[in-house]
Write a structure and sequence with these properties.
By secondary structure, the protein is of the alpha+beta class. It has a domain of 196 residues: Ribosomal Protein S5, domain 2 (2-Layer Sandwich), CATH 3.30.230.10. The protein has eleven helices and 13 strands. The strands form three sheets. It has a six-stranded mixed beta sheet with strand order 5-4-6-3-1-13, with helices on both faces. A four-stranded antiparallel beta sheet has the order 10-11-9-12. The protein is globular, with a radius of gyration of 21 Å. It starts with a helix and ends with a strand. The structure holds alpha-D-galactopyranose. The site of alpha-D-galactopyranose (GLA) has 10 residues, from α5.
Length: 386
Amino acid sequence: MSIEELKQKFFEKYGEGRVNGYFAPGRVNLIGEHTDYNGGFVFPCALSFGNYLLIRKTDRKTFRFASLNMAFETEISVEDLNKPIGKEWVNYPIGVFAQFLKKGLKFEQGADLLFFGDVPAGAGLSSSAALEVVTGVAISDVYGFDLDRLEIVKMSQKAEHEFAGVMCGIMDQFASGMGKKDHAVYLNCDTLEYELVPVLLKGIKIVISNTNSPHKLDSGKYNERVAECHSAVKAIQPYKPINALGELSPEDFDLLSGKIADPTVRKRAKHVVTEIHRTNEAVECLKAGDIARFGVLMNGSHTSLKNDFEVTGFELDTMVEEAMKVEGVIGTRMTGGGFGGCTVSLVKDEAVDKFIDFVGTNYAKKTGLTPKFYVAEISDGGKKLF
Ligand code: GLA
């Protein structure tokens, strides 16, 4: 949908007049999965699709929320901006408003808000982070709060914890808020130090394959993994004073893994420690132009997420297995939280059509689902459009 069409929809809904527009992107993570809430490293990029928000302050004291993607609409007063409404989509923006209130920031006037998202929902490409970040960027600007971008990123993560009940790390909101065109964000999730690394892949495309098997991040499995990682830390602590698995080197882990009695918890920890190591190496490879090795590390990441972290499942594994059979595929892995959603693959330009055809046909045959493919465009983080 074009910006003009979006404006038209806003006018139809709320009447003509002045309006501001904002955008925040979804993300794809190249490598570094389930490491963020363990104080590890991640390497995501912001995408060209995301969430748009058109907003206008009004003279009323209430806030009207509507979306071109969702049927549910609501009008709520300032006092009610601190409680979730059932399991509705508005909890993401309301959750962000609530963070502003918590900071003691005041909304003297209400507003009309219209959202539109073009991130495939449930695909694990962070449609919810895009919704949160676009809300934070917009209200900070429209109400003149002028918050630091990193502050908005952290508030967006809190909104997800408190209003969606997902104890996520900071990767998605960070990528959506801080991403840069043609760069990936190499982020230390412990210190929040980051580096924007150019992703100039000559003759190679980043292909996202959507399994169309929705990832069920709120199903509790995600929080279960977070809890398992905490148990691993607890088991190690008597022997080494760590606060997070990210503090363990692979060598530390080899020495201490025997202290983790529960074999499942031990496997989870192994994934985290090895994935952080793979991520750091992958960034070095990218900088050195060693894309072949980058691909090997992506494949290793998938295997670890499959066998040790157990967040893949039949659809994601099938997508990866079929992708591996195509000549010209440099690396392929699941991306995001897992349990459905998308894979990310590096594919040579000349192999992209074959990839889509071959993987698409075989995946559909094996799963009975129709996949979707997108050639990723790496874009800027959240911004004001008009
Ligand atoms: C989801 C979470 C992120 C991160 C990934 C897995 O996308 O929101 O914080 O943990 O899963 O890497």
